[in-house]
Structures
1.
Amino acid sequence: MPVVDAWMQHPTLRHPNHEMFESLRRWTGGGLLEARLPVEATVAALAAADVETGLSAAWYGPQGPLISNDEAAGFVAESEGRLRGVAGADLTKPVQAVRELRRAVEELGFVALRIVPWLWQLPPTDRLYYPLYASCVDLGIPFCTQVGHTGPLRPSETGRPIPYVDQVALDFPELTIVCGHIGCPRTTEMIAVADKHANVYIDTSAHTARRYPREPADHLRGRGRRKVLFGSNHPMITPGQALEHLGELGLDEEAAELFLSGSARRMFSL
């Protein structure tokens, strides 16, 4: 069954080697990236897991881009159709950020915006996000964000589904919000917010299938089958690693198709 990976990135050297990812390197046993990873390696990792489309994101933080929109666009161009771009933006320059988002969508062909709140140490309800939310609605693209605890060495407060995602969804009911990383340890909150709001979704990135907490796994098999998307967090976790134990989830054919690609195709207009 073909797969869409809703949360991944092709890295620059600036991205995985940043000091804040030391905790992830410790968990995975990986070292610093010593040479630029070729796009062909990412394409091969996706193809090995039957990922037909990876949504490869830019990363912007207060000290500048770890992966710029133009770098992400270059990776997409090298991927022979396997990657689609997800934009980043500098929250501290709201007018410029809106213009850059529009350029990324209209000129570069990007399909979403991703802001990682812990990078900025600003919750999603901060006023600096709001012009970008309105622009996402206007452009017809989803807003992707992170929920739950922060694996990298940054505070986790900004990842609370309640009150932050809940309030944004109330303020922008037309905005599609995709919440990455399941939301651990606040999975009950995350499921409640996704149930409450028609346009709030969850992606499973940063977890392998055998490590999904019980409640989100039950949600995926049941009423949440249209609200949960697959994501890997490549290259930290490859799609193959993330999907290795998918069969243990006990998904029926409809739930599996929606989870692996159907919902993402609809949401990101793929």
2.
Amino acid sequence: MFVDQVKVYVKGGDGGNGAVSFRREKYVPLGGPAGGDGGRGGDVIFIVDEGLRTLVDFRYQKHFKAPRGEHGRNKGQHGAGAEDLYVRVPPGTTVIDDDTKEVIADLIEHGQQAVIAKGGRGGRGNMRFANPSNPAPHISENGEPGQERYIVMELKLIADVGLVGYPSVGKSTLLSSVTAARPKIAAYHFTTITPNLGVVEVGENSFVMADLPGLIEGAHEGVGLGHQFLRHVERTRVIVHVIDMAGVDGRDPYEDYLQINRELVLYNMKLESRPQIVVANKMDVPEAQENLKRFKEKVPDVTVYEISAATRQGVQELMYAISDLLATLPDKPAVEEVAEAEERVVFKAEKEPEPFEVSRDNEVYVVSGEKIEKLVRMTNLNSYDAAQRFAKIMRSMGVDDALRRHGARDGDTVRIGGLEFEFVE
């Protein structure tokens, strides 16, 4: 099964909790704090495996969660960091944040890696909070939660040659005649509904050819699943434009030629400069010669290769022409020059989140914000000292003043994340 788009959930591992502990040794009557830090959580890392060709595995496993770090221990022992979770993906995978629609990573080369969800840092043990005014603190931190997000994975095939054209022009027949690929071939439109790949051997050279499902008018807007088909064209080095020169179903080969090129350009303007070979197929049909003559009169500057994929007439010459053209082009796919390799950002720095905002939920004042909600999750509220520290940090952040400005009074309920407490003047 060929799968080229999936949505999955990823979560970095939570950091381990810091420990509260004190030295309890003979002859050390005033042993100080000795609680160790928690270990960091594991990252979720995608790594390219050139042996994969589809995202089908992600249809059956949609959740990827890295392990959490170990908790801190007594005697100043820090918890171990967790192992990172590596997930293998095929080359040509683009990873997009489902909420922001931002491209997180564009994974192309074998072995390339990208951090998709960062693990949380470990919480600090009470050793870290000792100071002259409080030499024996009962404060420790919980581990930082790991980053979690839903992502959309899109696969754009990396092939040397992409066959494009209207449905039933003979793309699948051409692929099957020059490779060991066996795409479904039948006498109706849209027989091919997923891309097919095959390796073409030409003398001592070889190249990968992709048979892409037929395009129709409006494909650049998604008509007829156009986007799913067109994205695979982006990473081909050469476009082979197959035209039904026999004009089956009363179609005009010249109009088909113009319309397909129009759809390519409307989808991505950079495809206009992609090397293209024009192929006149079904030349074994009597009407094809007259149609070809009219076609060449309208596009005199275009070299047209005459073939019959069914009888293999002219197919070998076409394969040599494609091979010669590929030899003059860069080895890398011309992916919008892969957006100048998109400087291939494997992890983009997060913008500093806003500290908080205050809203009302009926009678409850709700304080929300990534930074303050993370602080709540990392605070061990079972400890009096830790709770006092949390209240002090909230005051320094201006939460108390913001609640007053919104009308909070003594005894009103305030909610932060999953924590509810009374507002005290």
3.
Amino acid sequence: MNLVAACEAFVSVAERGSFTRGAAAVGMSQPGASRRIAALERHLGVSLLDRSGRSPALTLAGHRVLEPARQVVRASETLLLEVEEAGLRSLHLAVPTGCDVRELAAVELASRDAGMQLVLTEAEPRVRADLLTRGRVEAQLAAVPGADGDWTVTLGLAGALPRPGRVHLDQLRPSGRSPASEAAHVHLLPEDDVPHLRDPLFAAAESAGLGVAQISVTTSLAAALASVLASTDLVVLSEHEARRLDLAWSPLAHPPLTRGYALTCAMASDSARLRAAIGTQLAAALGVGLGSQPGGRP
């Protein structure tokens, strides 16, 4: 258990009387804050919050623990400040795989200009979340629905040959003259193998009459690219990625697919620093711009 993060969540929720507002104040999701507080309660062997009412209320033990928990949070912030002022702290950030190396280099350079020692770790969505949970990184770019993201990137279909206009999935349906084995397949990258992207795409493909095997999650971008270059297959990509790979990109008519990325930090103090220092460069590395837009949060 991350004792500092758990105390931070508990103090914030207790002071605001709301899991939602308390979690938002420290840059956590509501379920994440709830899990951290529950872990703290298990660690201490007492119940800190009464959850039976509309708003969480401090139990007797919660009242006794609140001030010591505040002291833990303040001590942690003081320790981090001392380390930062001494120039000793590295901050590890988990980012998506497949970003352009020059654009990631620009992220690191921007962090140096801001006096930070940033270490980037490329990983797939589930791995990024696990790295943060286990304390292996201090921050990650979480894959979230577009409406919940700090940055959003519109996805379409890319292939070796251009396709005019928007691509409708029923255009890929096998015809009587073309066996299913010769029909174009659509490859979904591991980065997009998340419920809010995978499930709508698979459902739309089924509704459009595509074969079961025509939509699949590929093992890597390299594997998808090999298939695309050797056939009429398509891969789900952003326009930014397609241009970098010299592929023809077309918008997808239905369903609308949008990657959302939320900057999630173990310590709330890191969130504002990272956004200010590398937000612009992160947006470029993620492909925000071409067919994309800033997310709902500043």
